[in-house]
Each structure stands twice: as structure tokens, then as C-alpha cells.
Amino acid sequence: MADSIEKAITRSQDNGAQAVVLQVNTKGAVVGRERMAEVLEAIAASKIPVAIWVGPSGSRAYGLPAQMLAVADVTAMAPGARVGRTGTMLSIDGKQLSFGMADDALHSGSLGFLDARDQQVLKNSTDDRGVPVLRNMLYALDGVSVRGVTLDTVSDVLDAKGQVTREATTVRFFKLGLVPRLLHTVASPPSAYLLFTIGIALLIFEFFTAGIGIGAFVGAVCLILGCMGMGALPMSGIGIGIFLAAFVAFAVDVQVGVPRLWTGVGLALYVIASFTMFRSVDGLSMRPGWFALLVCITSVALTYVVGMPSMVRTRFATPTIGRDNLVGTTGVAVGDVNPEGIV
Predict the structure, then answer these.
(1) Which residues have a Cβ under 8 Å from the Cβ of 61 and sit 6 or more positions away?
(2) How large is the average pLDDT for residues 304-319?
(3) pLDDT value at position 228?
(4) How many CA atoms within 13 Å lie on the side-chain side of 259?
(5) pLDDT in tens, 164-188
(6) Cα gap 220→55, rounded to integer Å
(7) Beta strands of the chain (E only): which ranges?
(8) Would you state the pLDDT for residue 320?
């Protein structure tokens, strides 16, 4: 995503655009402070104005990405959006960024639109009480003078009834391509956590049930995507080690088809790993949300306590269907019979 922001600025400059508008909705960055500082420098050095809109309603600009609002030329928020949890402010060209009197409030907390406006966090020169949609952001940009250039983003036109209406200027939307979108999705903590869990679980399932390979293929794909996501996230080596140890413990009981002590040990290790494998970035936790944790932990518990043992026993049990007619018939022993053994 950091590369995409820099490319969007460069592309807009080359295409003769009046300005660049970045729509932000993020709960934190997965890149380090040094990489984020480079993005902020690219925004500050842009030859055309850069505007940031935190929207639509309910969006968040938390962590290091929130500091983009300190260097952008025009910033606005939708009603219901929040900004904050910036942590320690970065320095650009030897000067530390600042939100002025809002620094303390934004360091570990967050502000809604009205509070952010009152504390002069936003650089929106209009009198609008919020920017609910992107079209309103274009209206807010109209007439704004940045670096000696006055933006003209709205025009007056006559509609079919002869009335004058305001129309926003032409907007070119740039989105991530299919592969970058996929990589961006798997690089989120919940996605990487879920894919990594599903991948290992399916590989264990395929190994002990000796299927036709579909489970192994899907598991391998999920595991690869999960590893790619974790490679972009701040991970704890110890936490990942505990995570892998949990599935080794699960496998011990899966091979006998009965959940025993090792299943409990695996579940305990899995819970511990879920809370420790993601490191914080600049004080902002990267751990998946409670809903994602609850879903994964519950699913893993049901899989290895109920589902997997039943599948293994069913797969390797001696079939009895169609053998009822053998009951009561006389058989011939072709080998020695041990009365105390197992027939």
C-alpha cells in the first residue's frame, strides 16, 4: 500500500491532475516507521496538492497512517469517522510532525469529527460540518489555494429544467490491481491468522486421512497466503513457534483417533500463540480482533475434539455394511487361533 500511495502521487503529477485525494480507512500500518516516513516525505514533496479524506462514516485513521493528515494539504473526515492513536510523531526533513494542541489527545486516544475540527486537526477551509461522501470532498477542495495554485473542482451547469446546478470535476479513480489487492488482504492480521490456521489444519487432516489430495492442495494454498501475509506483518518468532507446537500436539492425538491430553495441550498453546504471535507497531496492537480470535479458537477446538478424531476413525474403521449375513455361520480357521488374543 505504501508503494501504491507513492505511485498514485507520481502518476497524478504526470497526468496533469489538479490534486490527489487519498481515501483512508485503516486501523494501523504494517510497515515500519522508516518506511512510513518515506511515504510522508512523498506526500510533503508532491508537486500537486494532496488531500486526505477519512471516510465514509465509521472509517478510522489509526496508528502511523493517521500522521499523513499532518503533512497533507487538505484533510477532512466523514461524520462518524475517527482519527488518532498516532503514537510518537515522525520527523520529516529533521522536523517533528505535530497536530498542535491535539498531540496529547491523539497520541494514545482518538477524536471524532467535531473534536478534530475544534482542535484544528483538519485542514478543511469550508464551513461544512463534515464530508460524508467523496463528492463533498471535491466540493470542499473547490477554491482552495495551495502552493500558489487555486483548485477548480466544481463547475456550474444548466440542467434540463434550466436551473443552475453544481457539478464536480472529472475524477479518475485508481485502485490496486488484482494481485496487489490479494496481497493487501492477506497482509491484514485477521486474514493471515485465519489462513495460517486453516492451511496447517488441512495439511494435518490430509496426512492422517490419506485423501485424494484436495485438502492438501487447499491447505497448501492457504498456508502460502498466510505465510505471505505474516511476512509483511510484525510477528513474534516465539509466538509462531508456540503456534506450530500447538499443531504438533494436536497431531499426536489425531493419529490415534481419540482426543486426550495432547489435544488439551495443543489447544492451550494455540490460545497462547493467538495472543502473542503479533507484535505491536509503535504502541498499536496488531493482534486480530476478539471476534476473529473467538471464531478461530472455537473452530480449532471443535475440529480437534470432535471433528478430526471422528474423521480418522471413520476413515480407517473396518467396514461392516453388508456383512450381517455372516453372523451365526461356521468359519474355517486358516491359521493358529489364540483364545486370549484379538480376532
Answers:
(1) 24, 25, 26, 52, 54, 68, 69, 81, 82, 83, 84
(2) 75
(3) 92
(4) 17
(5) 677 777 788 777 778 878 888 888 8
(6) 37
(7) 20-24, 50-54, 60-62, 74-77, 82-84, 91-92, 95-96, 110-112, 145-146, 149-150, 154-158, 164-168
(8) 56
Q: Please, which residues have CB within 8 angstroms of residue 210's CB and are 6 or more apart in sequence?
A: 315
* DSSP notation for 107-124: HHSEEEHHHHHHTT----
Cα angle vertex 96, ends 92, 101, to 5°? 135
| Superfamily of domain covering 2-151 | 2-enoyl-CoA Hydratase; Chain A, domain 1 (3.90.226.10)
d(Cα 47, Cα 36) in Å, to the nearest integer?
19
SS3 281: strand
Q: Report yes or no: 232 and 187 within 8 Å, Cβ to Cβ.
A: yes
At residue 242, does pLDDT exceed 80?
yes
The residue length of the chain stands at 343
Task: Note the pLDDT tens digit of each residue in 105-130.
Answer: 999 899 999 899 889 899 875 555 67
Domain ranges of the chain: 2-151, 178-316
- Report the distance separating Cα 137 and Cα 117, nearest Å: 15
Look up cell 486501523; give the residue. Answer: 27
Least Cα distance to 76 among 28, 131, 32, 26 occurs for 131
pLDDT at 301 over 90: yes
Q: What is the pLDDT of residues 65-112, one digit of tens each?
A: 999 999 999 999 998 999 999 988 999 888 999 999 999 999 989 999
Query: By the 8 A CB rule, do 286 and 189 touch?
Result: yes
